[in-house]
Amino acid sequence: MSKSEKKIRVLIAKPGLDSHDRGAKVVARALRDAGMEVIYTGLRQTPEQIVETALQEDVDVIGLSILSGAHNTLFPKTMQLLKKKGLTDVVVFAGGIIPEEDVPKLKKIGIREVFGPGTTTSTLVQFVKKSVSKTK
Amino acid sequence: MTQTTSVQQLVRGVLHGEKRAIAKTISIIENNEPEAQKIVSLIYPKTGRAHIVGITGPPGAGKSTLIEKLVKELRNRGKTVGIVAVDPTSPFSGGAFLGDRVRMQDLSMDAGVYIRSMATRNHPGGLAKATKDAARVLDASGKDVVVVETVGAGQSEVEVIKVAQTILVVLAPGMGDDIQAIKAGQMEIGDIFVVNKGDRENADKAVSDIQAMLELAPEKKGWKPTVIKTSALTGEGIADLLERIDEHAKHLKKGAHDERRKERVENELAEALTQKITESMMKELKQSREWKKLTEKILSREIDPYSAADRLLEKQLKNTRKH
Question: Measured between CB atoms, which of B22, B97, B116 is closest to A38?
Answer without folding.
Answer: B97
